[in-house]
Predict the 3D structure of the following.
Amino acid sequence: MSDFGLLMIVIWGLAYISVAKSYEKVIWLVAVFAIEKLIYGIIWIQWLSNTNVSDMFQKDALASTFYAIFGINDLLFCLFFTYVFLRLMKTKNKTI
């Protein structure tokens, strides 16, 4: 959660917004979004396995709760983007 990492989260958010109304035209970008979320999820799992979250809870319960669960959001969005990508590919293949 460095300043750079937070800035990159905002940049990715802007990328999502930029194609929200035309995602059907950028099928492979949807796949990139799925991969990006998968990477964030994997990094979160690695961080969680190397961090004693219970010690963090003693210092700041709210921040610790965020750190303990935020990767779940990334993994859920990975599943969402994967689903959208696969659905778009299926639709594309039917029209060929």
User: Anything to note?
Assistant: Residues 3-95 form one domain. The mean pLDDT is 90.
